[in-house]
Structure formats: structure tokens, C-alpha cells
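Q: Is it fine to ask for two folds in a single conversation?
A: Yes, each is treated on its own. Send the first.
Q: Here.
A: Result:
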Amino acid sequence: MREKFSELWPAFQAKDCTKVMAVSEAMLKIDYTLFSVHTIRADCFKDAGRRRPLRPRRCRGARTVRVAQISGDGKTMKTAFVVVTMSEERLLLTFLGLKEERQSLLNGEERMYDLIEGPNEKADGPKSAFFDVSARSPAWRAGSRRQAEE
């Protein structure tokens, strides 16, 4: 997906919506939950004057960022952004301006976390962010089911 995104982003910046649509269509066939791709597609449709059909897709991406921000600020494990998919994590990294150089999977007392570290494109932006990825961990989900059954 990174290879495809590296094709998509320059095409989007160049306003080559024909290429954006072709590449994004292929990406969404692999993972339809890529909110950032839906948002990019929505911008191309908007430029073409087709706003109405894609508003819900654009809102989903914005909603993902808002929900994650409500869940925490990402500065510590206790205030980690809660994400369910890798695409949500990537969307938040893009929103924060954080470029991933290092990734660490950390085991908290009851949760699993990704710690992403690297340079930030925004001068005042964070240099690291914690993500609660427990919902992606099969072991954690199995434990949660057992606790719920007890």
C-alpha cells in the first residue's frame, strides 16, 4: 500500500485526478477503510463539481481524526490515540505531520501500544505519538471476550 500511496500523493498534489482515481480505486479494492484515500478522492470529485455523492466519505475521514483525538492526545500510553486499523493510525500521523522513522510495539499493563517516532513537518508538531492498538491484537480480543463471558 505504501508503494501505491507514493503514486497517489504526487498525482493528487499535481491535481492529476485521472491518475488519482485509478490508483485510489485499486487501493480501495484492497482496503475500503482507507479514509485518507476517500478524502483525496472526494477532493478530486469536488474539483470536478461533483460534491454531493462523496460528502459522507469525506466526513468519515474527519470523524476518524476527531474520534481519535477525543480518545486522547497521543502523548503518553495513558492518553494514547485509540485506533482499530492501520489506516486510522496512518491518517492520524498525516494529520499530526509526523513522519515515521521508528515504530515500537509496547505491552502496557492491559493494553498494546504502537509508539511512532520521527521528524515532524509542522514546526510545533509532536516528535512521537502513542496509539492504543489493543483492538488489533488477537490475544487482547480473546482476553476481552473471556472477561466479558465471566
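Q: Second one now.
A: Result:
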Amino acid sequence: MKGRWLVALERRPWVPVIVAALGTTLLVPSALALLAPPEFLDAAMALGDRQLALALLGLFAIAASGFRILFRRRRSAEEEVDSDLGRATVPSANGAPYSGAETLAAAESRSHLR
């Protein structure tokens, strides 16, 4: 069973996206500093602090948008059934639901299906 904090994180998709983007933003420049030839490092130092900060910000934005697309949550079949429950009642001519129509609330939990 998932912990309560993990369920809360799944409902907020931007939290893992920001964490992953921060990790990428820290990992890529660190790997570049360790593995790049000295000429690349000299060229990066020649850019200046402002250009390097803008490059880091751009890397963060690209990583965040990429991870947001990757972490897109798809709805399960049970959630689609839950969202359609509110539309289960068919109104009659006077606006009241038919007597035989099922009147389930849209917010009714179906945790037994999950």
C-alpha cells in the first residue's frame, strides 16, 4: 500500500517534475566539468557568469518541460467510470430525474475498484 505522502505527490505532478529537473540541472554541468576537455571549460569560462546562469536556467526549463511530458499521468478506466457517474441521471421533461434512474454522486468513492 502506498504511503499517504506518495499519494499526495501523485496528485501534484509538478513536484516530481521539479525534483527531476533540478537533478538534471545539477548532473549535466557536473558531468561536463568532469568529463569535458579543457578547451570546452575554457570556452565556458569565457562566456561569463551571466551567460552561464542563463544556460543553467534554460537547461532547467527544458528539463522541466521534458519531464512534465514524461510524467504525464494517464487516467485509469476506474477513474473514467467515476467521472461519468454524475452524468448517469437522465432528466425528464420537467427537469427531475426519471424514477428508475441511478442517482449516484460524481464524488462517490470507488476505492474497492482500485
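Q: Anything structural to flag on that second result?
A: Two points. The two ends are 11 Å apart (CA to CA). The chain has two domains: 4-70, 76-89+103-114.
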